[in-house]
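At this stage, I wrote out one protein's amino acid sequence and its C-alpha cells, and that material follows here:
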Amino acid sequence: MPRLDLKRHQVRTKVLRRISLPILESMTQYVKEAALDLWGEQKPDSFIDDAVLLAMYKDIFAVGYKISAIGIEGMSILLTWT
C-alpha cells in the first residue's frame, strides 16, 4: 500500500485552503474543552492540535484506509491502518 509523507506545514496549508483558520481553531478548542478521550500512545502538548488537523486533512482530501501510513514530519502522531 502507498505511504503518504508530508510535513506539518504542508498539511496545515492544504487544510487552510479549504477551511478558514477561525474554523480550525474553533474545532480544536471544542475538542480541548470537551475533554474527549482520544487514543494515543504518547500525547505531547500538540497532540490534540495535530489530531484535529489530521482529521480535517483526511476528511477534506478523502484519504481513506487505502493509505497504509501517514507520517507527518513535525507532528506528534503517526497514523497507520491495516
User: Anything to note?
Assistant: Residues 3-80 form one domain.
